[in-house]
Amino acid sequence: MDVATRLTSALRTFTADSPTSRSWTSAQRARLKSGECSLVEWASYYLPDLAYLEPGEIHRRIVASFGNGDSLRAAAMASRGSAKSTLIGVANTLRLAALGRKRFIVYVSPEAEAHLARILNQVVENDRLLFDYPHLRPQDHRRLKIMRKRKRKETQAEFTTEGGVTFIAKTPGSAIRGMVRDAHRPDHLVLDDIENKDTAANPDRTRKLIKWVKEDLMGLAGPGNEAMSIHAIGTPLAHFTMIGTLVDEWSGGVIPIHDALTGENLWPEGLPDEELDRRRYGFWAVFDVDLLRELRYAHDTPSEQLPEGVKFVAGMGDRAYHQEYEMKPIEDGAADFQRHWFDDRFIDADDVNPADFVQTVRSWDFAATEKAAKSPDPDWTACVKMGVDKRGRVVILHAWQDRLTPHAVEQRAQSFAREDGQRVRITIPQDPGQAGKSQVFNWVVKVLRGYHATAVIPSGDKRVRWSGLSAQAEVGNVWIVRAPWNSTWLDHMCQLPFGAHDDIGDASADAFNFLNPGEPIWSAMEAFPS
Fold first, then answer.
1. How many Cα neighbours within 13 Å face the side chain of 349?
2. Hey, which of 116, 158, 310, 449 would disulfide with 284, CB 3.0 to 4.6 Å?
């Protein structure tokens, strides 16, 4: 399949004679040069070194959020690494300047100078772009003019093309009103990820940033400059953000890496699911001297399958992944577990002595369905190993989650039981009704035969069920054994009850309530009298 055919399938907007093919007719080139095409097509043809991967559905949606780059006020939240800066920040600004639609472009970003350097590089080195738009060549020695104001922590960089288009890069919060170049005021602004984690964590700073956009920046669209456009792109880093506010008030959209309805990866060529898993959960890595490259193994690869010398590279965890790739930020103050409760509550694995524990339990929570096309994001099967030591501390000894077939889950449970030994109790959740009793009987009598397995019947509101563990964590009495799974447990717990899943939370609640029973816990065998 040639490139043109692949793009037709991926974007659904390309014609069979896509401009990404190896040759172009004069009619095709005329259409591209006039801008009578989609922004994705234009970027694929004129910026091949930036658009070197096959575009995906995510790019069509990003571009559509900005009216093919021509909207006056538009904002979009899109996944980290989705090339939104390349499309809206670099490609569209060059397109607007090339077609003579804008004369004074201001690029606002913490990394504005680097983004402007990418634009300058195109108008210096890109022969294909300059052949059709020679007026984009820079006037002044092909370098950026850079000015820094240390007291105000502002940076400004700029260059002007031979056609008289001015590009300026500014850091967020900089003074922009009153800027004039050759009698022109700014007529196009790009706001690119202007929020950071510090801003997102402080609602007052977020409100100040919103005020700056609405008063200082939108105030530029005064008499004689009504056609000034503002395009904002970003990734949500908290529940209340500037980019989220602009998306709600302007035209635009929210574009996660996976389709919200089908679960389809919207850019498998650039961010395949395997890479997303590595970013989310971490991975094992070792440098192979013979191959002269790094070998990577999935985070849940069994230890017996890992070569010697591997080191674990921690992932970003569920919380950050939900925010930066699924566009589902969690409001910090509203969660039932707060991350700062665990800041100094870690124990090295070498310091853990099983004899120091009064009681230890591994509690399970089973998923109802497996991952499939009709259920792309089902619940997880999860288990948590927890103990109470002689000092009264609650210690999280291990946490695990996966999506496996029922038989594979049984095998994993048997493996954990062998590793844990007879001292560790096991709890199995029982669903209501006879089917739940049959499932428990199978687990206790067949799967975990020879181990002390117990059934528990979860009941009541989930937030009440894990409230005891939450209370202990808040006063600093929940400790965690330092291990690669820490981020998975913490991210999951610190998004409760707002996250997409609560499987680890349910298993943790069952484990804690078993160790600290508020009501009698009965043995599974009592349900099946002889």
1. 7
2. 310
Rounded distance between C-alpha atoms, residue 128 and residue 340, angstroms: 53
Question: 520 Cβ partners below 8 Å, 6+ apart?
Answer: none
Of 408 and 23, the structure prediction assigns the larger pLDDT to 408
Q: How many helices (H) and strands (E) does the chain have?
A: 19, 18
Average pLDDT over residues 309-337: 77
Please give the Cα distance from 195 to 307 (Å, whole number).
41
Token code pair at residue 55: 């575009």
Dihedral of the alpha carbons of 392, 395, 397, 402, in degrees to the nearest 10? 130
Q: What stretch of H or E contains 159?
A: strand 154-160
The one-letter code for the residue type at 140 is D
CB 94, CB 163: distance < 8 Å: no
CATH number of 70-255: 3.40.50.300
Closest to 360 in 3D by CA, of 409, 401, 393:
393
AA identity, residue 524: A
pTM value?
0.64
Quickly name the fold that domain 332-527 has: Nucleotidyltransferase; domain 5 (3.30.420)
| Token code pair at residue 359 | 């009681």
Element (H, E) at 76: strand 73-78
CA distance 369 to 381: 9
Specify burial of residue 437 (Cβ count, 10 A radius: 0-12, 13-18, 19+): middle
* pLDDT tens-digit series, residues 260-294: 788 899 999 999 999 998 888 888 888 887 777 88
Would you kindly state where each structural domain of the chain is located, as residue ranges? 70-255, 282-315, 332-527
Q: Which helix (H) or strand (E) holds 247?
A: helix 242-249
Buried b / exposed e across 74-105, counting CB within 10 Å, b at 16+? bbbbbbbbbbbbbbbbbbbbbbbbbeebbbbb
Report cis status (omega within 30 of 0) of the bond before 497.
yes
Q: Give the residue among 428, 432, 274 at the shortest CA–CA distance from 362.
A: 428
Distance CA 512, CA 472 (A): 10
